[in-house]
């Protein structure tokens, strides 16, 4: 296992920071006097890569002058590796450029973070076996919890790129059609069973025009973010048959502000689980395609301390992002730079590993006890949800920062 790489940025040399030299995640930030621009997190600071490129420390065809990372992603894996190597050199302990680069650092506390990339398209999957089994048990029965195709194919649906927002954005409780049990007709009103979904998001950094292999798909992935795919369970229950989620998933999807590159996660690769039935050849993996990333989700009622609801790990996924992407292209579907793939809710084998309140409260039948003494079956107005995640190395961690959102009351129509 790779050890901590030391930087002249002192705050990057602790075991507690999310952003050591080993990480170097990409984001977009602004300050009081300057607009959004590309930056790299290092310790408690952000390195202004726009200014660094202008100063001649590297040249990536002007792509780093844009207020997002899309143009740079389009340059491809070779150029991705070159920037990471150059940043590692510039920020390493003993770098001769320290005195100049220090002027390009901004304290994260003084920075406002923005969407790190422009989302081209958004697809959400349903690829955690434990989550799929729990949901199937709730709405069918444990004997038939998994649909017949689930062990053969990464299930997914195309969502709304327009509703993907960055961490810190408030979320408004949605209205929709709701149908009470035993009723023949729906009513229109605020969702009463609004939920979170603890997920990871994979960012596609290269376009494709036809089917790609699992290895090619992995090569196309630029990096990963934490992802909360907010979900209105009662709206979903009424609309999902026969075609699946629509308005129940269109409210918002929150992502963390830092793109952790695939290169930073390489030391933490791990294999998907043993297959209960063989996968078709186009989905078989040439090597480990998952990552060992600890994840947790916390809920804080308005003005109160937070409670950690669940802890799980990205290695619980049955299908990797590379398999999801390969399947996505199998019909000839073109992929674009900036496409976002949601992993699907990540749940583990134990009750405390469940990545949604639907599972944690067993569809409202078993209220979740908070540290404040309150209970939750689903989210209440004023609740703040925070997702955290990190791969644990030897004396360091590759973290994602926080992925947060606060639920506001339904917007009343005038």
Structure explained in plain terms:
It is a single chain. This protein has 414 residues and is an alpha+beta fold. The protein folds into two domains: 10-114, Roll (SH3 type barrels), CATH 2.30.30.230; 122-408, Fumarylacetoacetate hydrolase, domain 2, CATH 3.90.850.10. 17% of the residues lie in helices and 26% in strands. It contains ten helices and 27 strands. Strands 6, 7, 8, 13, 14, 16, 17 and 22 form an eight-stranded mixed sheet that branches. Strands 9, 20, 21, 25, 26 and 27 form a six-stranded mixed sheet that branches. Strands 4-3-2-1-5 form a five-stranded antiparallel sheet. It is globular, with a radius of gyration of 21 Å. The model has no long low-confidence stretch (mean pLDDT 96).
Describe what is shown at a glance.
The protein contains ten helices and 27 strands. The protein is an alpha+beta fold and about 425 residues long. The protein has two domains: about 10-115, SH3 type barrels, CATH 2.30.30.230; about 120-410, Fumarylacetoacetase-like, C-terminal domain (Fumarylacetoacetate hydrolase, domain 2, Alpha-Beta Complex).
Q: Main attributes?
A:
414 residues; SH3 type barrels; Fumarylacetoacetate hydrolase, domain 2; 10 helices; 17% helix
List the helices and strands and how they pair.
Layout: E1 26-30, E2 37-42, E3 45-48, H1 49-54, H2 70-73, H3 77-91, H4 98-101, E4 105-107, E5 112-114, E6 122-125, H5 129-139, E7 156-158, E8 164-166, E9 171-172, E10 175-178, E11 187-190, E12 194-195, E13 198-204, H6 214-220, E14 221-229, E15 231-232, H7 233-239, E16 253-255, E17 260-261, H8 262-265, E18 269-270, E19 290-291, E20 294-300, E21 307-313, H9 321-329, E22 340-342, H10 357-360, E23 368-369, E24 375-376, E25 384-392, E26 397-399, E27 403-408
Parallel strand pairs: 6-22, 8-16, 9-27
Antiparallel strand pairs: 1-2, 1-5, 2-3, 3-4, 6-7, 10-11, 12-15, 13-14, 13-22, 14-16, 14-17, 18-19, 20-21, 20-25, 23-24, 25-26, 25-27
């Amino acid at each position: 296992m790779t050890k901590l790489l030391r930087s002249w940025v002192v705050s990057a040399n602790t075991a507690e920071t999310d952003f050591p030299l080993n990480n170097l995640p990409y984001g977009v930030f602004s300050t009081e006097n300057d607009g959004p621009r590309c930056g790299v997190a290092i310790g408690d600071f952000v390195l202004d890569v726009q200014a660094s490129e202008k100063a001649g420390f590297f040249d990536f065809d002007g792509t780093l002058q844009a207020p997002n990372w899309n143009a740079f992603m389009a340059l491809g894996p070779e150029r991705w590796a070159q920037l990471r190597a150059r940043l590692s050199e510039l920020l390493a302990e003993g770098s001769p450029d320290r005195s100049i680069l220090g002027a390009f650092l901004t304290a994260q506390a003084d920075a406002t973070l923005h969407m790190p990339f422009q989302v081209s398209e958004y697809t959400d999957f349903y690829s955690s076996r434990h989550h799929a089994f729990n949901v199937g048990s709730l709405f069918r029965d444990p004997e038939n919890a998994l649909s017949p195709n689930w062990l053969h194919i990464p299930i997914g649906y195309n969502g709304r790129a327009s509703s993907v927002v960055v961490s810190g954005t408030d979320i408004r409780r949605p209205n929709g059609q709701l149908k009470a049990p035993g009723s023949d007709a729906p009513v229109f009103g605020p969702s009463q069973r609004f939920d979170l979904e603890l997920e990871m998001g994979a960012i596609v950094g290269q376009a494709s025009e036809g089917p790609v292999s699992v290895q090619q798909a992995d090569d196309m992935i630029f990096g990963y973010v934490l992802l909360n795919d907010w979900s209105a369970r009662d709206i979903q229950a009424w609309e999902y048959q026969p075609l699946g989620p629509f308005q129940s998933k269109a409210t918002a999807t929150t992502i963390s502000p830092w793109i952790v590159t695939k290169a930073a996660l390489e030391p933490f690769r791990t294999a998907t689980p043993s297959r209960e039935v063989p996968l078709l050849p186009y989905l078989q993996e040439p090597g480990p395609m998952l990552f060992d990333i600890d994840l947790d989700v916390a809920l804080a009622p308005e003005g109160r301390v937070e409670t950690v609801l669940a802890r799980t790990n990205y290695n619980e996924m049955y299908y990797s992002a590379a398999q999801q992407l390969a399947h996505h292209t199998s019909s000839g579907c073109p992929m674009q730079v900036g496409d976002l793939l949601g992993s699907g809710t990540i749940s583990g084998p134990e009750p405390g590993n469940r990545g949604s309140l639907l599972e944690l409260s067993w569809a409202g039948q078993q209220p979740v006890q908070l540290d404040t003494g309150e209970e939750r079956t689903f989210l209440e107005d004023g609740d703040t949800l925070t997702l955290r995640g990190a791969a644990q190395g030897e004396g360091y961690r590759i973290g994602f920062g926080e992925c947060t959102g606060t639920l506001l009351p339904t917007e009343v129509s005038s």
